[in-house]
Putative aldehyde dehydrogenase (Lutzomyia longipalpis), 325 residues
Amino acid sequence: MALFLFLSAPLAAECIEEELPTLQEDKKHFGTLLVTEFSDLQSASDVLAESFSDNTSPWKIRNLLLQESVEEKFLELVMPKLEKYPQVYLSSQEFHDNFKGAITAATKMSLKLFSNPKDEGDVKPTIVLGQNRSYFDKPGSDSAPIVVMNIFRTVKEGIGMANAFNGGSVSVWCEKLSIAYEIAHGLNVPIVWINSLAKFTPEVPFSFIFGGITYGSEIAVLEKMLFQKRYGRNNVISPEDLKTFCNYSPVSLIVGGKYHFECLTSALQSAHLVQSNLIKISTDDTKNRFREILSSCTRVKCQNLASVYTQRKTIVFPFGETFAN
């Protein structure tokens, strides 16, 4: 099952200013594991192996980018760690259909398949070498429960491949601080975890939307609510309002002395304000109550409208563990 970890502790904040490129909006939510030659391969392979037991979270690893120099060693480490899928997934016909459809597609393209050599089952955790993973996913269904692996030679090439297709988040594995930050800041995704995965704090509103829920924020529903009267489908927010709503500083947080959350923000492009990407509040009573809350305080109203019209990029790494303080 997916692990939803929320960390909470006193924090220190400092301003960070950075102009962000437009972040990608993926319809199918999953995570990408980017493994460099400077990684702790044991830990990275543990994360990938464990990801096969998660078929529900928006950050489940379904895409693997591996540096060429460590390809053989990484596969040697990860294959014996691949355990059977949880029974709750194996009992699902849709899960079986998605898996078999992906394997059939890979076989037709004569792609290499990697799995635990001791697992003789037909439906088992499998890594497929080559191609974009969109070749293996059925329209209208969740991502097929396989991991698609592609190889990169240089860090620059790895960043380009991750930006081309990532699923909405990237877990970067690299123990050289300068290279880790080069990759993290070069990625155009809402969330980057360095040498970690799925670390959260309520103080940083994350951008994951899955099943109508925004993960990581204390005001999840308010974050993505638009006022139909003024900011509905046919009334794109004005540049003047956008500047007002986005007029607050990004922050850097150290949570519990363990994880560092660096949150960068910039104005979201109007073209990305797609109604279908927003959470809908079902009842009129609920809508009216939220309107009352927002209208009662200009600051709260602006903060929440800002969260709708602002894109965030959050970089997370284990502070004082992987890197020196």
Observations:
- Residues 209-318 form one domain.
- The longest strand covers residues 259-267.
